[in-house]
Amino acid sequence: MQPVWEFPLRLPRHAFSVRDAARAGDVWRCFQEAAVEASTRAGWSPQRYRAANTAFLVRAMTVVHHDEATYGQQTRARTWVSRFRRGMLSTREVRLLCEGEPVVSGTQEWVHVSADLKPKRAPEELTAAFPVHEEDASVTLPSYDEDQGSTFEFAFRPWHTWMDPLAHVNHPAYVDWCDEAVSRRMDAAGLSPVSLQPVAEKATFRSGAEAQDEVVVQTRRVGRTAEGAVALAHRILKGGDVVCADAITVRTLSDGDPGPLWAALG
Q1: Which helix (H) or strand (E) holds 48?
Q2: What would the pLDDT profile of 27-53 be if each residue is shown by its tens digit?
Q3: How many domains does the chain have?
Q4: How far is residue 258's CA from residue 162's CA, in Å, rounded to a whole number?
Q5: Are both 48 and 158 inside the same structural domain?
Q6: Which end of the chain has fewer CB atoms within 10 angstroms, the N or the C?
Q7: What is the CATH classification number for the domain harbouring 14?
Q8: Mind listing the pLDDT tens digit for each residue in 99-133?
């Protein structure tokens, strides 16, 4: 079985802002496409998972943006499984490359589940399709000095038309929600939300949000990196007290001066 897959993969036009810079959530969607394409090439298409009454769900994901992905780049995805534990927990590495250099790197933690979305050991024919390969180290968030700010909230109800093939909100949408919370705070402070630039993010998923759930994103500033980028902690709740996900996003501004962002999120 082939352990590493590399193939052309470009972000679609709708993934880009008016700066022609890709949004973080859309980079996460691109990485999901890379995982699905690699799985399909290894013999496990979405249709085969459905026929087997199984699936993989993202349990956690960490992404580092080495540079902003911009429209028109001739990008390629490179991906492999770096760990597969107890036949259930799979670590997949994904790299988005341009001219051989990484633009964005990600580490995905997947859990194999049954048709009712309960963790389940994968059949041997599935685990055999994804031989473990060692290459780059897994992705980690940049370190930051802690400096807590006050919490602000963004509340809404997901649309029915947002639901994914497993009938819940797809995991990249949570990054959209975190950035929307920050963008609204920026707008209220007189900053252009378009200038928000991703540096890194990590999310851990605990419970799926569905259409018409009462969702609240709680956000607070928690620190700064050595370069001045702002670290923010987010908790996504549904129904008032059920935790859907916890996330850390690290953000700067496109002009290179994160100071106004730090002040706006204080």
Answers
A1: helix 46-51
A2: 999 999 999 999 999 999 999 999 999
A3: 2
A4: 32
A5: no
A6: N
A7: 3.10.129.10
A8: 999 999 999 999 999 999 899 999 999 999 999 99
